[in-house]
Write a structure and sequence with these properties.
tricarboxylic acid cycle, alpha/beta, Succinate--CoA ligase [ADP-forming] subunit alpha, 23% strand, 2 domains, single chain, seven-stranded mixed sheet, globular, ligase, 14 strands, succinate-CoA ligase (ADP-forming) activity, nucleotide binding, Rossmann fold
C-alpha cells in the first residue's frame, strides 16, 4: 500500500504550461504518474503534448475535475499567484493539493491553510515549498527523482527536499511505501504527525524515517505523538546541529531563538519518545536498515 498517493491517483497540474510545470510533468509521466490534464485560465481549451501524451488544459480546477475525475493537483504556480491557485483547488474540493512553489508569503500560506480548515479539510495540502510525494512504482506528484529508489517497506516524512533524496538513495536497497516532503516553511499543510498517523495505519510500512530540522516545535510535538500513538519503529534525523543562533538556514522556518528549536532539543525529545536518532543522514539510514532487517 501507500499513503496519500497511489497508482489510481488522477493528477492535474496547475501551471502545466509553464517551464517548471512542463519539465516536471514530463518526469512525472515517465515515472508512471497518471496525469490527466492541466489548469491555466489563459490557455483553457488548448492541448499540449508532454512526454508523448496529449493533455487538455482546463480553465479551472473544478472544470478539470469534472472532465477527468482528477483527485490530485500538483501546483507549479509563481508565488504571487499561488494563494489563489491553492484556494481554487480547495474550493473545488480536490482530495490532494501538492504545493511545490517556493517563496509564498507566510500570510498567504496561513490564509489558504485556514481556508482549507474552514471548508472542512476536504483537501489535504502538502507543502508549500516542498518536493511533493512519491509512492515508488505507483505514482509521483512533485519533483522527487523517481529513479533513486523502488517500492519497499519504509515510510519517509521529511522537511528537507535534499535530505529526502539522500535518504531514499541511502535506503534504495530496501525501498519505500511512500516518501512525503512536507516542506520547511513556518506554515505548512500536512505535518510530521499527519504522516506518522498514516504510516502507522499502513500495513505495508514496517519502519518510519522522520527528518526534521531546526526551528519551531514540530519535531517535539511529533515526539509526543509517537510516544502516545505509534507502535512501529521510528528512526529520526534533525538537520542543523551547527547552525548559528538567530540565523535562518535555508528554509524560512529554520531559525533558532535561544534554546528554542535547536537540533539538540529536538534530538532529546525524539529519543525520549523511543526514536533512534542518527548523527548524520548515513547513520540514520543504517539505523533504519537495522530496524527493517530485525
Amino acid at each position: 500500500m501507500a499513503i496519500f498517493l497511489n497508482e489510481n491517483s488522477k493528477i492535474i497540474v496547475q501551471g502545466l504550461t509553464g517551464s517548471e510545470g512542463t519539465k516536471h510533468a514530463t518526469k512525472m509521466l515517465a515515472a508512471g504518474s497518471n496525469i490527466v490534464g492541466g489548469v491555466n485560465a489563459r490557455k483553457a481549451g488548448q492541448t499540449v503534448t508532454i512526454g508523448g501524451q496529449e493533455l487538455t488544459v482546463y480553465g479551472t480546477v473544478e472544470e478539470a475535475m469534472k472532465a477527468t475525475g482528477a483527485d490530485t493537483s500538483v501546483i507549479f504556480v509563481p508565488p504571487k499567484f499561488a494563494k489563489d491557485a491553492v484556494i481554487e483547488a480547495i474550493d473545488a474540493e480536490i482530495g490532494l493539493a501538492v504545493v511545490i512553489t517556493e517563496g509564498i508569503p507566510v500570510h498567504d500560506s496561513a490564509y489558504f491553510w485556514a481556508h482549507a480548515v474552514a471548508k472542512g479539510n476536504k483537501t489535504r495540502i502538502i507543502g508549500p515549498n516542498c518536493p511533493g510525494v512519491i509512492s515508488p512504482g505507483k505514482s509521483n506528484a512533485g519533483i522527487i527523482p523517481a529513479n533513486i529508489t523502488g517500492p519497499g517497506h519504509i515510510g519517509l516524512v521529511s522537511k528537507s527536499g535534499t535530505l529526502t533524496y539522500q535518504m531514499m538513495y541511502e535506503l534504495r536497497d530496501i525501498g519505500f511505501t511512500t516518501a512525503v516532503g512536507i516542506g520547511g516553511d513556518p506554515v505548512i499543510g500536512t505535518t510530521h504527525i499527519d504522516a506518522l498517523q498514516a504510516f502507522e495505519a499502513d500495513p505495508d510500512t514496517k519502519v518510519i524515517v522522520m527528518i526534521g530540522e531546526i526551528g519551531g516545535d514540530a519535531e517535539e510535538r511529533a515526539a509526543d505523538y509517537i510516544k502516545a500513538n505509534v507502535t512501529k519503529p521510528v528512526v529520526g534525523y534533525v538537520a542543523g546541529f551547527t547552525a548559528p543562533e538567530g540565523k535562518t538556514m535555508g528554509h524560512a522556518g529554520a531559525i533558532v531563538s535561544g534554546s528554542s528549536g535547536t537540533a539538540q532539543a529536538k534530538k532529546e525529545a525524539l529519543e525520549a519518545a523511543g526514536v533512534k536518532v542518527g548523527k548524520t543522514p548515513t547513520e540514520t539510514a543504517e539505523l533504519a536498515r537495522k530496524e527493517i532487517l530485525r
